[in-house]
Amino acid sequence: MPPINPYNPGNRVPSGTVVPKKALTFNKVFRWEPADFKAPLPESVAVIGSFSDWQAIPLEKDASGRVWQLSLNNLPGNCTHRYMLLVDGQPAKDANADGLAIPETEQEQAWALATPRGPRLFMLFSQTK
87: closest CA among 68, 101, 100? Predict the structure, then answer.
């Protein structure tokens, strides 16, 4: 008997047909706040990365006015994303990053953060079960 199509259990899949698995996704909350409580607040905070095709996505201020955050849903899972936080359009540190990566493409070079060991991007490990 042919296997059942998981997308339409009433239909049978012809023998030998490969049924694609459902895409695994995950959700991520990006959060940024100034390291110095007395520092002036920026006009804008955004995240840019491989998950947005390097298009900036703005974060929103929370009720306190000092914390910026954004919840992104349905990011592709089981891969490593590269990204950068932009504060007033400039690369900024992310204390919640999973790690640092050396930029490999021109787009990544354009948004890299200067560090003592050279330019770096942040990594986001998107492991799903």
Answer: 68
pTM of the model: 0.78
Which residue segments constitute the domains of the chain, with CATH numbers given?
25-125 (2.60.40.10)
H runs (alpha helix) in 74-128: 106-111
Q: What is the residue-level pLDDT of the chain in tens, covering all 129 positions?
A: 444 444 444 444 445 555 456 678 889 999 999 988 888 899 999 999 999 999 999 999 998 889 999 999 988 888 899 999 999 999 999 999 999 999 999 999 999 999 999 999 999 997 765
Contact 23, 10 (CB under 8 A): no
